Amino acid sequence: MNLDDRMEKLLWSIALPGFGQILNGHLVKGFVLIALEFIINVQANVNLAIISSFLGNTGVAVEQTNYQWLMFYPCIYMFAIWDAYKHAEGPKAPNSFLPFVLAAYLGTIGVIYSSVFQIKGILLGPIWLPILCLMIGAALGFFIQGLIGKQSFKE
User: What parts of the sequence cross the membrane (predicted)?
Assistant: First the structure.
């Protein structure tokens, strides 16, 4: 499978968890992930929080968000992306899961602190802080993956 096919499945999975699995022919897994995304999204009020956050009303977004449900979102989201890419014959490099796992962990930590964490007095809220933490987690995962790769290459 060429890079364009892998990227297509990765990007569709980013657009909506489960779409990448459907494109890979894993229909049951795809529909389960779509259902989970829909349930979590509705229960956590993610769309309302996104609208409020994009309009700069992060305090309102914090009030609208159901954090008990939102805590599931980063893990489901990152699992769907990793799974779609992996089954689209993505990189077979050892530890290629690390960026996805660390993004999910740090994204969840971002959810936990999103109602109180501020940068220069600005509350980032339940959308921006988890996204920021997710990107930091992915970067950290790629860094650790590179370190492990260099270490095993030396041996």
Answer: 31-55, 67-85, 97-115, 127-148
Residue 17 contacts residue 81 (beta carbons within 8 Å): yes
CA–CA dist 73, 91 (Å, integer): 25
pLDDT in tens, 28-62: 999 999 999 999 999 999 999 999 999 999 999 99
**Average pLDDT score over residue span 118-127:** 90
Q: Which residue, chain included where needed, has tokens 């650790």? A: 144
Phi, psi angle pair for 118, to nearest 5°: -130, 150
Interatomic CA distance for residues 151 and 155, integer angstroms: 7
- Tokens at residue 138, please? 């992915």
Question: Which pLDDT band, with edges at 50, 70 and 90, does 91 fall under?
Answer: low
What is the rounded distance in angstroms from the CA atom of residue 107 to the CA atom of residue 75?
8
pTM: 0.88
CA distances from 112 to 17, 23, 97 (A): 22, 33, 23
